[in-house]
Write a structure and sequence with these properties.
alpha+beta, Helicase, Ruva Protein, domain 3, 2 domains, 4-stranded antiparallel β-sheet, 25% helix, DNA-binding
DNA sequence: ATCGTAGCCTGGTAGC
DNA sequence: TGCTACCAGGCTACGA
């Protein structure tokens, strides 16, 4: 559920508080949070202790800390992951999974209720493990025309395409619904039926909504999406579609509807984003 | 090759 | 009150 803007908020915090620091100790409190680290928790700890953190990077919803031996600590927040910076003697949160002690006496904490996320050490920067993750819209190398071209070659619905991290990364349910609302597109519209101009505008909306959300510190619905200081962003007040079932559309006043889609929910304005009548529409 | 979906996870809440 | 069922949903693995 933390999507690109929320992950970037976390990356900025790590950049400020963790980069330049050395790791003095690591504790894995729940091995499930490092299950993607093949060699296991003790190896995870050994690969971190004594290393200095040289950079904090991100692609899509993945972020990683670059260590001074060229390896990196790949991190995904999943649905409920948090990276917090605090004093080691601060109260232990309920779902504390990993602690990383730093040489300035502070502690990086990975807190995760649902354990969809986790950490793993990769040999490289960028991690080869995320080679399949496409550039995200905030990446300087992001190529709109390329994404539009690839998208229009797919045989699927437009929201499915937006959520496919191998096509464009960083988009989750919230910003997909927001971009589709801005573009006045129904989630089931065929990618093949989109005109180049429509698809280009959709990608532009994805970029814009993420940029605006980032400027407000990200979106927060419950206390789960927070920066490294545990604070929430404010973009939820700016949402036009997501989570607004029964509210009037900010554009036309029709009542926003929620519909099951891909085993989750999709929000749209039934007037601005009408259901396609055939495959092309 | 491409597309669609089951399952991983926990806690809050709706419903009985 | 206490129980069950459901929902939140990013990602991987796997089947069609």
């Amino acid at each position: 559920m933390p999507e690109l803007p929320e992950v970037e908020v976390v990356r900025l915090g790590l950049d400020e508080h963790v980069v330049g620091r050395a790791v003095t100790a690591v504790e894995v409190l729940d091995p499930r949070s490092v299950r993607r680290h093949g060699p296991g928790p003790s190896d995870f700890v050994a690969r971190l202790v004594g290393r200095r953190v040289d950079a904090a990077r991100r692609r899509g919803k993945y972020l990683w800390l670059v260590l001074d031996d060229g390896s990196s600590v790949l991190t995904h927040l999943g649905m409920s992951g948090q990276a917090l910076i605090c004093d080691p003697d601060a109260a232990t949160p309920r779902h504390l999974r990993i602690t990383v002690d730093l040489d300035d006496g502070r502690q990086l904490r990975f807190v995760d209720q649902r354990i969809f996320g986790g950490m793993a050490v990769s040999d490289t920067d960028p991690p080869t493990e995320i080679a399949h993750i496409a550039p995200d819209p905030l990446d300087p190398g992001f190529d709109v025309a390329r994404v539009v071209s690839l998208m229009r070659r797919r045989r699927t619905g437009v929201k499915r395409a937006l959520l496919d991290q191998t096509l464009v990364s960083g988009v989750g349910n919230i910003y997909a619904d927001e971009a589709l609302w801005r573009a006045r597109l129904h989630y089931a519209r065929s990618t093949r039926g989109l005109r180049i101009a429509e698809a280009t505008e959709l990608i532009r909306h994805v970029h814009d909504v993420m940029t605006e959300a980032l400027a407000q510190g990200g979106t927060s619905f419950d206390a789960l999406y927070v920066n490294v200081n545990g604070q929430s962003g404010y973009f939820d007040r700016s949402l036009n579609a997501y989570g607004r079932e029964g509210d009037p559309c900010d554009r036309c006043g029709a009542m926003i509807v929620r519909e099951p889609f891909m085993n989750r929910s999709s929000y749209r304005c039934p007037a601005c984003q009408p259901r396609p009548r055939n495959g092309r529409w």
